[in-house]
Amino acid sequence: MIDHGCSRHNGPVHLSKRLLIALTAAASFMLVSGDAFAVPDPSGDEGLAGDISTAWFISPLPNEVFEGAPVMFDAEIGVYQGLDDGPITTVEVFVNDVSIGVQDCPDGCTFADIVLDQGVHSLSLQASTGYTTGVTVYVDEEPPSGTDDGGGTDDGGGTDDGGGTDDGTTDGGTTDGGTTDGGGGGGGGCSVQATPPSPWALLALPLFLLVPALRRQR
């Protein structure tokens, strides 16, 4: 009778243990085979390569001021060859949206004897890879309020920012009030990125649920 009672009692217990173990294994398999280990890109931009080839104006500097129109100067171009796209072979320079020529420019180049009359002028370049950037210069003109006289030479004109990857230098790179393009005035530069939960914590969750059930059945 005692053995018979024990067998009746142990049968459901063993069945419950097996059921819990089966559910735990199934949950673990679903987590591993799903997207538990996929970590999203916090930047949200999946199409931008990390190390792209860039070109930029070493001179003139953004918002540079020239006096004594007409003025003549050389535009010096710097080039950085990235690892994630094709190399830059040529660069074309535009003055006020008019092309002044194309040069071989794998290691940098110079467009000499550019002449500008009085006024506000835009200089832009386009690399053979399609990369573009530009600067604005002033000839016998005052730059807008909020920009540094002398072309913003204190910060190097943006020439050291990752090889000219900052497109905010176009059209002076400034807006009224002295904030730079893309600066996101009012603290907009700060963002909070959601941190995905650890996949190992998700895998351990069914095991934590299993332990109390086994203790109660004992």
From TrEMBL:
Residues 137-196 are annotated as: Disordered. Residues 1-38 form the signal peptide. Residues 148-190 have a biased composition (Gly residues). Keywords: Signal. The keyword Signal applies. This is DNA polymerase III alpha subunit. It comes from Enhygromyxa salina.
